[in-house]
Amino acid sequence: MSLYYYQTMPFFITVSLFLSFIGQFASSVQSLLISPLFIYIGTGVALLSIAGIIIKKLHTKIGYDIFAGSTLLAWFAYWKMLFNEDSPLFFFFPLYFAFMTAFVSLFLINQQHKIDSETFSRMQSLSEMKGLQPWFIMSCVLVTLEFQKHYLLFPVMMTLLIMRFALSSCLEQK
């Protein structure tokens, strides 16, 4: 795999931009994406990526990318039926995720060479905290899919996941 792949989440960004575009227009693709099949596929792939990270059979950064993209597909399929047809959250949330991931990749991960040793050691201790383990954050993201009335909980947890991806990327490259 190329170095670029390890510094960003290309699958997740692509899925985010695709869903943002599809969320704006009623089409046959949107009808297909909101089928229960995509809820099961997205959730299943997300669970498999968590398992792959836990048993160390999947590179952590690839696991982040697959998990985030599949969870976003499951979110779209699960929540789109529950909100109005023209709800702006199906345009803005995926767009926010794509820009946030690109921003973090550009201004944090690609600038990791500027991190001093004291900051690096603090980042390592933060990374080792039990509450910030990748599998735990990913599990929390999946749980937030059930909280439709608290619609901001999912993007907050996804943002935390993106930040954890950035932390892992910086620590592995140093």
What's the number of structural domains? 1
Order of helices and strands: HHHHHHHHH
Integer-rounded radius of gyration: 16 Å
In percent, how much strand structure appears in the residues? under 5%
Question: What form results from the Cα inertia axes?
Answer: globular
The helix/strand class is mainly alpha
Number of E-state strands: 0
Describe the protein's architecture and organization.
The protein starts with a helix and ends with a helix. It is mainly α. It has 9 helices and no strands. The chain has one domain (9-173). The model is unreliable at 1-5 (pLDDT under 50).
Concise overview:
74% of the residues lie in helices and 0% in strands.
Name the features.
9 helices, mainly alpha
Write the layout of secondary structure elements.
Blueprint: H1 3-7, H2 10-24, H3 28-33, H4 36-54, H5 60-79, H6 89-109, H7 117-127, H8 134-144, H9 153-173
